[in-house]
Structure formats: C-alpha cells, structure tokens
Amino acid sequence: MSVWEDVVGQESAVAAFTAAAQAAREAAEQREAQAAAGLAPEGARDGGAGSAAAGLAMTHAWLVTGPPGSGRSNAARAFAAALQCTGPVPGCGQCKPCRDVMAGSHPDVVRLATEKLIITMEEVKTLIGEAQRRPWTGRWRVILVEDADRMAERTTNVLLKSIEEPPPQTVWLLCTPSADDVLPTIRSRCRLVTLRIPPADAVAELLVRRDGADPELAARAARASQSHIGLARHLATDADAWDRRRRLLLAPVSLRSVGDAVLAAASLVEAAESEAKEATAERDAREKAELTRALGLESDGKIPAALRAQIRQLEEDQKRRAKRARTDVLDRAMIDLLSFYRDVLTTQMGSDVERVNLDLSDAVDQAARTTSPEQSLARIAAIEECRSRLRSNAAPLLAVEALMVQLRPQAEGR
Predict the structure, then answer these.
(1) Which of 44, 231, 289, 324 has the most crowded Cβ, counting Cβ within 10 A?
(2) What distances in angstroms separate CA 199 from CA 202, 339, 379, 392, 397, one per listed residue?
(3) Residue range 170-185: average pLDDT?
(4) Residues 75-106: pLDDT tens digits?
(5) What angle do CA 93, 96, 99 make, to 5 degrees?
(6) What is the pTM of this model?
C-alpha cells in the first residue's frame, strides 16, 4: 500500500507530487555522488535540484490548496513521505521512512497543525529554526504547515525570508483552502498544487477501506457531507451523528418567532460546546497530569507560586484549543445547513442535480413550496455570513442567534 492510498480523487496532484519526489531523489543521489567525489554540490536553489530536469519538477516551497475536506493535509504528508522514501518507488509506503512519516515520528519532517485560532509568532520562529537544521536521517528537512491560512500578516512576513532562501535540503509545504489565503509574496515563491472536491464514490470507498464502514452507510455519508472527507468519516463512524444532523436541519423550518430562533441558537451553541468539551476533556486531563508529574507535584496538592505560571499557560492553551474545537463544530453545522438550502434552491429552480439530503426530501419539498428562490439565496448568504463571523472571533451565541432569526420561514429575502 503506497502513501497515496488515502489521497482520493486527486490524480493530477498525485502525479505532480510523484514527479517531484522522483526528481528530488535524483537530485539527492547526484548531490551524494558529488560529495563522495569531493566535488562542491550544484543547484542549491529549488530544494537542491541538481539538474534542469529535476528543477522543473521539484522546488523548495509548495502551496497545497483545496476546499475543506479535500485532503490537503493527507496529500502534503504523503508528499513528505515520498521525499524521504528509500523504497524502489518514491512513496512506496513500505520502507521505514515512509512508515515513520505517515505515523508522525520521522525526525526530519516537522509538522505544525494548530489547534488554536491562529498560529503564533513564537511557533513560526520555532519552525524557522527547525528549517535551518540539516536532515538527521533523511535526505530532506521537510517543514509542513497544515493551517498556513491561520497566520496573521505580520507572522507571515517573518516566515517569508526562510521560504525565499531556505537551506538547500529544506522543503516547505504550506496548506491552505485557497491561494488567496496567504500573502502574494509567499504565494509567488511557492509552487501551487490545487486539490479538487473528490468524487463521492471515491470518498465512500475510502471509508469502507480505511474505517471499515458499511458500504451503504459510507455512500450515504459521502453524499450527505458533499464529499468532505472529515465530515463523511464523522457521519460514518458516529452512531448519533445522523440524529443530531437531522434535528439541526429541521430546526429552522419549524421556527415560528424570534423567541424560537433565540432558543434554537442557544441549543445549537450549547450542543457545540458539549461536543467540543467531550472531544478535548480526556486530552486536557492527561496533559495536566503529565505536567504536574513532570514538575514533581501531587495531583491534588498545592501548587508552589514559582510553578503556577506553567500550569496557567497549559490551561490557557487548553482554553484556546476548546474554542477552536467549538468553532469547528459550529462550522460543520453551518455546512450542513448550507446543504439543506442548496437542495431547496435547486428544487425551486427545477434543477435535476441530485439532492444531498435524500432522507429529508419531504422537508426540502415543503420549504421549496412555501418560500421563494430569493429567500433561499438570502438564507444561504446569511449562513456564509455567520461562518465568517465565527471565524473572526464574534461571540458564537450572538452570531448564531442572528442567523436563526434570518432562517425563520417568515423572514423576507433581501
């Protein structure tokens, strides 16, 4: 099984990465041969590509983009494994470097995937320091940033110099939803690889093969998630996810007053906070226990004043992670709502596009009959506005309340 097995529906991206990994291997072999012969290595630029042919396929910085759920992080990690691969074909998935990279334990692949709302300046400075190191065991030092769109402009500017002129054996991999999510100065120094929304059948096949999902359930989950791999897995593996989703999608069409909208918003935010807490509580407790043990403290003992700052820093980090988890849960709810009103709008316009929510056909038909296309468009715009507000640190309850008021059947389209 190669490292590309989980990168579904991305044939052109896999081809580009495979060609680059092969060129990188040839460049590394040429560099090693020159070193063995006592010659100065050539081609410091383009990730140390030592020939014109290698330089065309391989470069020192990559920008991997694609819509949410397309598998950007999986593709970038697979490319990192292919660069470190020592098997017969780059990305074989069988050699130790491939297995180590995919398991997250390779010493020469540094991965940053923030669980907070932003990537801090301190984290970026740490990455820059890591990028200056020579590889320990592999041929390349790979710096993988999975959430490059979460860097502030000032932070990105600090990163620019290292991406522009990295050491010859360093490769940067930045992942963002869109090329516009990074500064033009960064974008112009990276090679762009764009992923597409994978076909639903490819996502379903992945769920069956990787997660052992029932084929019928996997196909249903892939369609309901609109080929978002993460959401599809959530639906295929969480027994309660379908009931929560159904209640969410039926809630707006049953609202009869502003008071109902406020109560529905409070229920949604409370459920998001509960789900986020459930997802992070065990890890938070484990981290605190490990820290107190490392500091030589009793779990229920008094914390000396000199050590309180470290405990407080951990707690602040955990609060930021919980906030990110809540935002992600709410964003997932917004995507589900978008799918419902997309079905309503396509029905109103007489489109023959297959519905996402086949199990809610009666509710979709009812909403399509009793509202206008203008109202559906206004509701879709309201959901997108709510997503934007949630990402910009707006109070979740206020943002969702405003949305639910606009989703009431009585609300006028604008």
Answers:
(1) 231
(2) 5, 16, 27, 31, 35
(3) 92
(4) 999 999 999 999 999 999 999 999 999 999 99
(5) 50
(6) 0.79
**Identity (one letter) of the amino acid at 216?**
E
Tell me which residue of 103, 109, 167, 165 sits closest to 137, measured CA to CA: 109
6, 64, 189, 197, 411 from 10: Cα distances, Å = 10, 12, 23, 8, 41
Rounded Cα distance between 130 and 109, Å, is 10
SS3 category, 182 = coil
pLDDT of residue 315 exceeding 50, the answer is yes
Burial class (CB in 10 A: 0-12, 13-18, 19+), 15: exposed
Tokens at 49, concatenated:
């590509």
3-state SS, residue 226: coil
pLDDT band at 301 (very low <50, low <70, confident <90, very high): low
Residue 389 is inside which H or E element, if any? helix 373-391
pLDDT digits (tens, 9 = 90+) for 212-225: 999 999 999 999 98
Q: Which two tokens stand for residue 406?
A: 């606009």
Burial class (CB in 10 A: 0-12, 13-18, 19+), 216: exposed
- List residues bridging with 63 in a β-sheet: 174, 192
Tokens representing residue 2 in the block: 């190669």
Higher-pLDDT residue of 154 and 384 is: 384
Helices (H), 199-257: 200-211, 215-224, 229-237, 241-250
Compute the average pLDDT of residues 387-408. 91
Asked whether 409 and 371 are in contact (CB, 8 A), the reply is: yes
Three-class secondary structure of residue 197 per DSSP:
coil
